[in-house]
Amino acid sequence: MVSSGAQRRSLHGQWSSRLTFILALSGSAVGLGNIWKFPYIAGVNGGGAFVLVYLICVFGIGLPIMISEILIGRRGRRNPVSTMSFLGEEETGNKHWRIVGLLGVVASFLILSYYSVVAGWALAYVFEAGSGTLVGIDAEGASHKFDGLTGNWFISGLWHSLFIILTVFVVARGVEHGLEKAVRILMPALVFLLFILLGYSMIEGNFSEALIFLFAPKFSDLSSEGILSALGHAFFTLSIGMGAVMAYGAYLSSEASIIKTSIAVVMMDTAIAILAGLVIFPIVFAHGLDPAEGPGLIFQTIPIAFGQLPGGRIIATVFFLLLTFAAWTSGIALMESPVAWLMETTGLERRKTAIFVGIAIWMLGLLSVLSFNELSDFELLWGTFFDSFDYLTANIMLPLGGFAIAIFSGWFMSANSTSDEIDASVDGVYHMWRISARFIAPVAVLLIFLNAIGIV
Ligand code: PFF
What we know:
globular; binds 4-fluoro-L-phenylalanine; mainly alpha; Amino acid/polyamine transporter I
């Protein structure tokens, strides 16, 4: 007889309540992806049409895959690699499904290596803002400051190191401790500050131009690469396609509703990204900046706003602090799956494993640090190390992982198992999910891939 997820217990403990799980999952989802990456890639890809495709990807592909990932995690109740191998065996007699979990572990590892570098920039800006150097800054000064930071490998390397240490610190103690409180207080605070900034942008920025840029789709501006980026970002921002959500799902109690939780997290994540866009682009247009500026976009716009607001010094400090916290809760999620996997395979204790994984990720991250200075001319397949790690993970590995997760949950798991995990309290919801997991999500991912490589 197939035992239900309800009878298994995770080796790593369990969330104290559904709210904690929602908080932890949102903590993982809301991060640099929403506030740093979304505005930057929306800008690079021409705005409106990209945003529309991104929204379609989030709700049409991301949401069903998030549901799949949580249900797989909760049913397996192990780290993503063992869960995929265990459920693969249980449902299909084939353990090779563990490759999907392994792909996710590798993706987490690669993502955290460059994510930590950007988080390091945010951390550096806490101190810049606190020491008053951003007060009254103009567009040129802000660009100069950003280039000064990223151009100096030693300084940006130090901030990267500090962020890794902070992340290892939490993961070494186990994810439940502290995470709950941090997310419960800090996330609303971040949203509150974004609203203050929104007020500034509406009054002082060029709000109407920003609205047109973000919401009036001009499809001629969107390339097939842009569509792939929108898809990739949907995965990145929701933290799906890599087992991170699966790892968290493993600690979820069997009573909690997977569907409601996923909808709440996806809506919150999307709202925060859009809010960030509405804050940043009015400033971009009011100051004649280039929306396609690239990874420095928020570091060159947000300081201008704070530089002019009364009390800007304090608010700017708090803002970058909260951004760092948002990055931190995501970094923790990124580190959790490689650590949980290594612990279970090697039998090493959590603390040692976390330190070991942290050092490895730190070393790899140095390549991204150097991508903005000594190695800025060194091109791999998709640009610098930094750009290539980003492209490889977000645009290739995550969609591929998501595809496999959808196929596994839709075609290989029995309807008995999946309906067991998904509360069918609202009629039709289960079927909608199943149709998405079997057809809509995988076909859409496939088409976008084929389109990007020029086949369709
Ligand atoms: N979703 C995070 C963000 O938008 O910043 C990034 C991320 C975190 C991706 C955790 C993957 C993950 F496992």
